Amino acid sequence: MPTPAKSAAVLAAEKRAHMSKNELEKRGEAEKSLMTGQPLTERPEVKEKPIAHKEFLRIKRLLKKIGRDDAILEAVINRYCLLQAECYDFEKKREMFARNLQKLMEDPDIEELEKYRLQAQMQKSIIDVDKQIQTKRRMLFDIERENGMTIAAALRSIPKADSRDENPLLKALSDDS
């Protein structure tokens, strides 16, 4: 898979770009035009869930550091944080079922046949929760991948400068014909 295009800021910092200063400036302006200029805001449903709220603050801080704290990503980031909280809840439920299963197996007052029946039901519940966790994790992964591709796609979608307009020799040759 090809590496995503570097931003104008990265290219300028590296000082190895095969672009003129003018081209770098145009690229930087085009990158800025892809952003709204409005900061991310947390939705009420995210704010009321402690795990989701904590994740939102973490992601917002990271996005701010790289200059991507923008409202254009708001829906995706809020959804991602809610999914993180839901995944956390399912993981806690799974742990609870596993602890209860362990207690059940150690209980001497329950008959063996009843123990096996209850064990089968508990294991089925654990498997069902595991399936839900996997579904949530898949959604999280899809959002992470898509969000990454969106940023890369935004950088790749910057219009290339027409070199004919900038090269005086090519401009002169095309005017004569």
Structure, explained:
This protein folds into two domains: 7-36, no CATH class; 37-158, no CATH class. Helix content is 74%, strand content 0%. The protein has eight helices and no strands. Helix 1 packs antiparallel against helix 2, helix 4 crosses helix 5 and helix 5 (74-106) runs antiparallel to helix 6. The radius of gyration is 27 Å and the shape is elongated. The two termini are 42 Å apart. The model has no long low-confidence stretch (mean pLDDT 80).
How many domains make up the 3D coordinates? 2
End-to-end CA span: 42 Å
Radius of gyration of CA atoms, rounded to a whole number: 27 Å
- Percent in helix: over 70%
Low-confidence stretches: none
What value does the average pLDDT take?
A: 80
Helices and strands, in order, run as: HHHHHHHH
| β-sheet strand percentage | under 5%
Shape: elongated
Query: In total, how many beta strands?
Result: 0
Main beta-sheet strand count, sense and barrel state = none
Query: Which structural class fits the helix and strand makeup?
Result: mainly alpha
- Number of distinct helices: 8
